[in-house]
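Notes to self after the call with IL:
- keep both proteins in one doc
- input above output, always
- annotate only the second one for now

Protein 1:
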Amino acid sequence: MQVREICEDELETLVVDCWLPFAEEMGELDEYNALAEHVRNGDLDGSITYREELFADEDQRTYVAVEAGELIGYATAERTETPPVFARGPAVNLGELFVGEAHRNDGIASALIERVERWAEAVDAERVTIAVNADNEPAKALYERHSYGIRRHKLDKTID
């Protein structure tokens, strides 16, 4: 298994093989993450365009886990500046982390986290941040094993 930065010609494969299954799992955890109707109907053009835009952004990275030529997992990361009123430096946000079900518990998620952390060091980030679904116990346990702790609780409210 190899963890590396994604290549542009792999973006459509990423959407189909990894991002869509990730989004489906997130939707099963919480209706808040339900798939958009056009995606449920098989229209992935907007999703591919979205990934192409992220690929072109120098503050974004997508790392993939590849085995036998197949994408079996991925992680996204974004470098962000801290507002100047705070005494902390820039951060990298680990936005998405997914490993295909057949490859879980093989250390792939850990390898992806470590790759994001190495990039964070390379871009002089002070910390890596992660948001996790409140009901995603396996992900929370994984992040805790990597020494991530709760700093903030994010709350939201649906506006009717």
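Protein 2 (the one to annotate):
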Amino acid sequence: MIEGHACTFGTAFIHNETHRSNIFCFVERKAGENTASVHISEISAPPEGCQKHKLKTEIVYDPSTPNDFPISLVIAEKYGMLYIITKFGFVYIYELTTNQQIFKSRISNQPIFVASRNFANDGILAINKDGSLLGGMID
């Protein structure tokens, strides 16, 4: 049984700087577990001579919020990064070609209500329970 999951589609330069791949990303967390899996899969045809890009890694939620779960995933196409925004206000950033976590921070002490991509700067925008608008981007 899957307790919590979120997904997104986007494009990124996975194999080289000339071939843009269609990417499907999702987070899967099984009931009763404190960890989840981040999946990054290429759903378009890779360039000739390359294998399809498919990676899976573990995301460990902060011990202070063991019941946390992702509410939004956003692909930063300009930088090849994946933002994972959780209910309890954490942002995790993963690099798409390696599926390695490169950043984690708490952006809100209040639960996040909704989050989305900020098309102006390839960052994220989120609204918490208090109605505060939060934003972030890769500099």
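Annotation: The first strand starts at residue 2 and ends at 12. The mean pLDDT is 89.
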